[in-house]
Design goal:
- It is a single chain.
- The chain is an alpha+beta fold.
- It is built from seven helices and 13 strands.
- The protein is about 50% helix and about 15% strand.
- It has a six-stranded antiparallel sheet with strand order 4-3-13-12-9-10, with no helix packed on it.
- Strand 9 and strand 10 form a beta hairpin.
Length: about 350
């Protein structure tokens, strides 16, 4: 048997060896579970992509579009072109805009609730949107028609092909956007949210009113023209509400990981409740470790204070009560939130 050649290792070779660093174990209370592509135990890994359909401007725009089209479809068979009908069954001429506005409001209420995955909120908010939208829509329709007719006389334009006619309709119909904004604030139980909603709704509805006559002139077919024009009206109003609300927000939570990744919750209320109940301000579903009222975020002056009833970590550290700073990452079960504040000029 031949001798086996021995391997020789010099002292210099040993000194050049670099051992791998030991991986630290997660701290008690932290969650190392992965959800999707995000390891939620790493607070620094903030996914900013998310689902674009959870952006408020998108789902409110789609909701406004669908609501307006359904309102048009209900009334169109009972609409008469060119004359003011006297028959009661031709009620579409009188109630088409009312139906469009009410169902737009219903769409905004349902979209906001379904984006949060809460059927209970959808039913409650939907009922409120129908009642308030109907009452305000009827009253604001008189205001809109009054403004429209006054402006037509002031501009001296009854021709739908003239720019001044488009402007008159734009200003008059802007009032309908205010209805959508008021309802949006009511379902969120926030005056500030209502203010942002009214501002966005007025801007969007004004743009929708402005394009109404040009669209009808281009398409040249009465029923489909109204469908396209009302659809744009509802869509633009919803998109504008979402964009204005996002642009003017002061404090918000961005969902960086979990089933709602990509959604942002703007903090309007003095207290925001996280929990497994559908009525929670931030409903955390599909996680049995979440308590019915798992945590509460309170706004006290310029401070945002997080109080935990269950397991919560901030930047990887378990907390019972914590004053948050912009950029902090909050872990609750499988959900990861990034807390943000708008920077104010000194």
């Amino acid at each position: 048997m031949k001798d086996v050649e021995k391997i020789k290792i010099t002292t210099e070779e040993v000194e050049r060896v670099v051992l791998p660093q030991a991986t630290s174990h997660p701290q008690a209370g932290s969650v190392s579970k992965s959800y999707g592509a995000l390891a939620t135990g790493q607070a620094s890994a903030v996914n900013r992509g998310g689902s674009f359909w959870l952006e408020a401007w998108f789902y409110l725009g789609v909701a406004g579009l669908l609501g307006a089209l359904v309102g048009w479809a209900i009334c169109e068979p009972f609409y008469v072109d060119g004359v003011v009908p006297r028959e009661l069954w031709r009620w579409g001429n009188y109630l088409m805009i009312e139906f469009v506005v009410v169902l737009m409001c219903l769409g905004y209420a349902l979209a906001e609730s379904l984006a949060e995955r809460s059927l209970q909120k959808a039913l409650q908010r939907g009922a409120l949107a129908i009642v308030v939208g109907a009452v305000l829509g009827l009253g604001f329709e008189y205001v809109a028609n009054f403004l429209f007719n006054v402006l037509l006389r002031a501009f001296g334009s009854l021709d739908k092909r003239e720019f001044s006619h488009w402007m008159a309709r734009s200003i008059g119909w802007a009032t309908f956007g205010a209805v959508g904004g008021i309802v949006y604030g009511l379902i969120g139980l926030s005056v500030k949210k209502g203010y942002y909603g009214v501002l966005g709704g007025v801007l969007g509805a004004a743009l929708g009113g402005f394009v109404f006559d040009p669209v009808c002139l281009v398409t040249q077919v009465a029923g489909p023209s109204r469908a396209i024009a009302f659809g744009l009206f509802g869509c633009l109003t919803g998109v504008a509400i979402g964009l204005v609300e996002s642009a003017l927000k002061d404090r918000w939570l961005y969902v960086a990981g979990g089933p709602l990744a990509g959604k942002q919750f703007i903090l309007y209320k003095p207290e925001t409740v996280f929990g497994s109940q559908q009525t929670s301000d931030i409903y955390l579903f599909k996680d049995p470790s979440i308590l019915p009222e798992h945590a509460v975020l309170s706004i006290r002056g310029r401070q945002a204070i997080l109080r935990a009833n269950g397991v919560v970590t901030v930047n990887g550290q378990p907390v019972q009560e914590k004053t948050l700073r912009s950029g902090d990452h909050i872990q609750i079960g499988r959900y990861l939130f990034a807390y943000r504040e708008k920077q104010k000029a000194n």
